[in-house]
Each structure stands twice: as C-alpha cells, then as structure tokens.
Amino acid sequence: MALTGIQIYKLLPGSSKNPEVKKHANCKECGFPTCLAFAMKLGQKQAELSQCPYVEEESKAQLEASAAPPIRLITLSADGRKLEVGNETVLFRHEKTFYHQPGIFVRVKDTQADAADVAKAVGEYVVDYVGMDLTLDGIAVEAAGGDFAATVAAVKAACPFPLIFLTEDPATADAGLKAAEGIRPLVWAATPDNWEAMAKVAKAADAPLAVRVDGGSLDELAALAEKVREAGVEDIVLDPGARDYSSNLSVFTQLRRLALKQNERKVGYPLIAFAGDDPVLAGQQIAKYGGFVVLDSFSPATAYALLVMRANIFTDPQKPIQVQPGIYEINDPKPGDPLMVTTNFSITYFAVANELESSGLPAWLMVADAEGMSVLTAWAAGKFDAERIAKGVNTMNVADKISHQRLIIPGHVAVLMGELEEELPGWEINVGPREAVDLPNYLKTQWG
Amino acid sequence: MPAIEIPKDKWNGKVREITLGATSADGGSRTKTVTIGGETTLPFLHFEGDIPHPPVIAVEIQDRAPDDWSPVLLEAWGDVVNDVAAWAKAAEEAGADLIVLKFSLHDGLNGDYARKTVRQVLEATGLPLIVFGPGQAEIDNDILVPVAEEGKGERLVLGVCEDKNYRTIVAAALAHGHLVDARCPMDVNLSKQLNILISDMGMPMERIVMDPTTGALGYGIEYGYSVMERLRLAALQGDSMTQQPMLVTPGEEAWRTKEARAGDGIPEAWGEWAERAVNWEILTASTLLESGADIVVLRHPESIKRVRTMIEALMEKV
Q: What's the CATH number of domain B18-314, 3.90.1150.10, 3.40.1160.10, 3.20.20.60, 3.20.20.20?
C-alpha cells in the first residue's frame, strides 16, 4: 500500500534515531530543501528514493515497496542513446503531464535483404519541429526464418538506436542477445508456453522482457507477468494481444487505470503496441497509453506526422512550447517586404505564421523573447514592451535582411507606439490588427 | 491470486442527444437525419458505458471555388468545386454524413445569394446541412437570417456563434427551428458560458452544438485535445452546461498548415506531399475523436475514408 508523505518522512534521515544518520537531516542532497519536502514528493511519486544517499537499510526496504512508481521505468540502451519508458502518473495530460514519450520502432525481418538499409534510414531520420530535433527510437527485428543473429548484428552496425527482438523462440532470442552484446534490447515475447526458457534467457542478459497473452484476460496477463518476475526478470513490458482499435483502446485504458488508480503492481509495467502500417492506429496508441509503438514500415511523411503528434501530446501543459526568438521568413520575403513583431508563445506564433503563410503574402516575422507568453499576457507582465521589441530589432540583424525601417506591432499593444518610436529613432511604427486572422487583409490594404 | 477486476468509472452524467436535419415527416426535406451524443462514458470505452451513436463526418464545401485551398485538395475534388450543387453531391458520394456549407468572403455575398445557394445545396443532397458564414460578424448575420428563413423546418445548424456575436444567429435559429454551433477559443469556462448565454435566449439545449475550436497537429492541437477531454469529463461528472455534443474542424485547421499546403522548398524529412497532407488531416481528426469529438469536419476525400475506417473499428464492442 502506498505511504503518505508524513509516513515516508518518519523513515527518512530527518526522523532517524541514529545520530550517524540524523546528522544528514535536511542535507538537500536529494535536490529538495528538507526531508519533509522530499517525503511529500516521494508520496506524490514525483521523486525517486535513490535521490537520498543516507536512508537506512531497514527503512529502504519499506520505502522501496511503496515508493516504486506505479508503472515501472524500463530503460533500453544502445551505443548512441537510451530510451526510457514508464513512470507515468496520470490518465489525462491536463492532470499533470505525461513524462516519457513512447518509443516509436520500425519493424524489419531477418529475411529482408534491405534490413540494414531500413535501419540506417531510420537511424538517420531527423526532422526539425519548432527548433526541436525529432527522431524515431529504434528498430524491431523480427525472426521470420532468416539468420536472426546476423541481421541483429547488421542492424546494430547500421543504426545507433535501441532494438526490440520479435521472437518467441528462446534460442533465437539468446543468439540475438549475444549478437547485440553491449546494448540493452527488449525481448518480445514470453508467452504461457515459453516463459520459463524466455525468462532464463532475458535474465542472463539483463534484458527487459515483454509478456504476451493473446485474447486472454487481464488475470492471465498478470499471472504470467508474476511468474516471469518470480523467475528473476524485473523489467517487464506487457502485451495484452489487443491489435484492433477498439480492444487496444479499452485494454490499454484498463491497464493504465489498474496501475495508477488501484496501484495494481502485477500490471504496473509499460505496454507495447503494434500499429501495422496505420498512422491513425499508431496515433491512438501514442495518446492512449502505449509505451512502445511498432510500425511495420518507415515513411518520412508518416514519421513526421507521428513525431509531431507525440511531441504535442507529451508537451507539459504547465510549460507551453516556446518558439526560438528570431526573424522568421514567411513566403520567401524580399528586403522591401513588411516586418512585423509578435511574441514567442508557440500558439501566438502559429496563429500569425499560419495566417501569413496561407495568404501567400511575403513577410518578415520577428519573434521577440516574451518568455513564452501571448501578446496581451506578456504586455501585462512587462515581457513584451518597447525596450524588448527594440532590443530584438537591434540584435537580430534586421538591417542585413530588410531595407526599410517600418515595423508593424500587434493591435493589442498599440499603446507601445510612442515609446517604440523613441527607442528606435528613424523607425516608423505601424499598428496592425488585434487578431492574426485580420493580418492578410491589413497587409493588402495598409502596406504599400 | 485474486481476480483482477476490470476498472470502471461510475459517471452520473450523459452527453445530450441532438438530432440534425429533418425528414418530410418532421417538416423538412432531408432523406435522413443524424443523431449524435448520448454517451455515458469516455470516447469508445464500450466496456464502461453506452455510446449509442457513432461520431459523424461532415464534409466542408464552399459556395464557390476556394482561392486559398491547397492544390492537393483541389485536385482531389476536381471540377465540382466550381458548382456548389455538384460539390454537395460529390461530398455525399464520398461518404459524408453531413454537409458543411461554408460561405467565403467575396463581393457577391449577400442575403439573396446565400438563400439561393442554400436552396441549391438542399436540392442536391438529402444529407442534413450545417451552414457557416465567413466568420465576420456583420456579414454572418446578414446572410444567416435569410438562410434560416430559406431552410425553415430543415433543422440546419447555423454558425458560428461566438461570445461577441451570437444574438442575431440564435434568434434566427429559434424562429425557424434550427440548431446553432457555439464556438469558443479552446477554453472550458468560456464554452460553458456561451452555452448558458445561448440557452438564456430560450434556445433548448438539444439544439446547441458545442464547438471548442482546435489547433492542427503541430499547431496547438494539445490545447484543443485537453480542453475537449476536460469538457467531456465535466459532462460525465454531471455538469449540465458542458453536456453538448462537440463539433471540431480538423479539415480547415490541418489544411491551413504549411505541412499540408507546401509542395516545394520544404525539408526532405517531411516526406511525400499528398501522403503528408492527408496524414496531417487524419491525425488531427483522429486525435480529436479520441478526446470526445462528435462531429469532425473534413476536407479531403481520402481522409473521409480513413477516418470512417477508424470510427467503424472503434465502434466495435469488445
């Protein structure tokens, strides 16, 4: 049963009777100001016990049982990077945030001549989205009757990402794990028929193991996960075998609720989902509780859409995405085209950029650093004032790109006009519309 | 080991059932009506409650050939975009449940023209009809009043009603037996408030469709997504003023983005144009369906098919 913050506090150094431990009370090494603050965070499952180096052994045992996150954190690693999945704390992103983006994997088969080429393309794929480099996460290598170990070795050499092994044969999995020495793949899957041998292989290589029950009940899935855990594999991933939209959504929702709301440890693990070639199904699995999502093929047009969707859903609602301040070119502008300014709140930027782009009118859009606030909010908070806008004009090399000295400001901050003319001698300040939607019409009628 | 119980939430609330369109039996001329709402659980969780009606697909057509649509879209529809009646028919054939007739802003736009255009569409298709003005208060009011008269008895949906401009449209809908679309900018409380204002004018709640607005994939969809999840949770928890079915416009939003519009001068990593553009629309729509949309307004014929497949699969009881 989960302990409350106060119950946890009684087990931390701050409450210890042992002077050797007590002297570390409120040492702040955990990153929190006091033992009590740390205890509260542990109680809310927003901190890890390992952050406290001084907790006593006997307390540790008690705390670990209760402080373990309701969905176990699973780490896959490879030469180039690692992937962490799990540790989620909410059902809906607005309740707090989703923490670990599901890993998106592309399937290759060991009978496929171009497996390494696909792996290479996946590994090299990177796409820019509002200044972030988005990438896929790995390759799922399927044993389909070819030389599995050789394919694993070739894929590993071609792509620096983590791997998933798709095989139910323990000997094949073992050969793959040996070929992948030095990295930490996920093995899929242990079933009611092969679990003992699979657990042995996974344990020996310290690899996470997925357990799969087809069309089975949650009871059977939980029972199988328990058996595998008792056999010594702690890093477990669940596959309830639900492949169609409807059962996938229902079963994943049930498992997430069981783990979070009922603290059901037997199913407190990340989930693996298979989307085939359907981006819509993959989208559902990303939004609704998948931990690993396996696609059957790689296409940039699908990867881009899914990666953006994932970035959106996993954006922390309390920290909206900011756009990098700077001068943005819209529709290939020339030096004489209009210059306008807005803030770096992503939604504000998108509203303005979108209207301009769809109008086809060329323009220079200066995004000022307003600490990620919208125009009116930033103005009210003093983050979007004449000084900041002038600083933007003076530091963003405006003169190198633009041949005129006219600046359009949002209608909501018309009040800044006089002050801006003082801050920017020689400049003409124009007051634009209040709403982005009116910009194209404004430019057509007022700019010339 | 004790059996694991399937975790079901107990909801007290229910989304209102709303019927769009009227057949001759009810004083209209539609060949079918469309009923939405009635859910007693979150989207598609059949194990927990009732989802008596599937979400529906409305297809947007415009009164004349759009001058700002992506070539990918125009190519997909072909010549019909030059003839509103032909376009309405084509949209029905492409699998629409509803037609959205959106008026664009141009010099010829006035009450008589709007009246005539709506008549043409009503005669070309038997589907229930949603009519949107171009989104400028004065013009919307000028054309939607005659549209309401012309469509008397058809149970049209008129829109959009916003907090700054709803009275005239609501009055016209009240007078002629229509429904309204109540649009707010991605905010739970504003949505509630507008529903209250409209119902205070005497509009029955069974004739208000809630339109929480959304952003496209990559352009703020997470705000719309979470606002819709919160509205639906509030509805299920029994908050009466949030229990309206929701309409969103993923087609319009997705096709405004550079990802859908631009074929040249874009990064290679964006992939093939038409595939990307349709992906943008269907992923925007499907994400919003997962968060509670009852009507999605789409633009591309391929998107209609793909979203239909998704809805049908999600309506399978498991």
A: 3.20.20.20
A135 touches chain B (CB under 8 A): no
Give the closest residue to A375 by CA, choosing from A337, A348, A354. Answer: A348
Say if residue A34 is in the same domain as residue A142.
Answer: no
Domain of A58, in residue numbers:
5-67
A303 inside 8 A of chain B by CB: yes
Whether residues A164 and A291 fall in one domain: yes
ipTM > 0.90? yes
Q: pTM for this structure?
A: 0.86
Per-residue b/e over B19-57, b at no fewer than 16 CB within 10 Å?
bbbbbeeeebebeebbebbbbbbbbbbbbbbebebbbbb
Contact A140, A180 (CB under 8 A): no
Query: Which residues of chain A lie closer than 8 angstroms to B230, CB-CB?
Result: 92, 94
Token digits for A162?
A: 């983590």
pLDDT one-digit tens code per residue, B85-127: 999 999 999 999 999 999 999 999 999 999 999 999 999 999 9
Count contacts between A and B (CB, < 8 Å).
Answer: 166
Q: How far is B149 from chain A (nearest CA, A)?
A: 30
- Domain CATH number, residue A234: 3.20.20.20
Substitution target in A265, A358, A365, A445 with the highest count of B β-carbons within 10 Å is A358
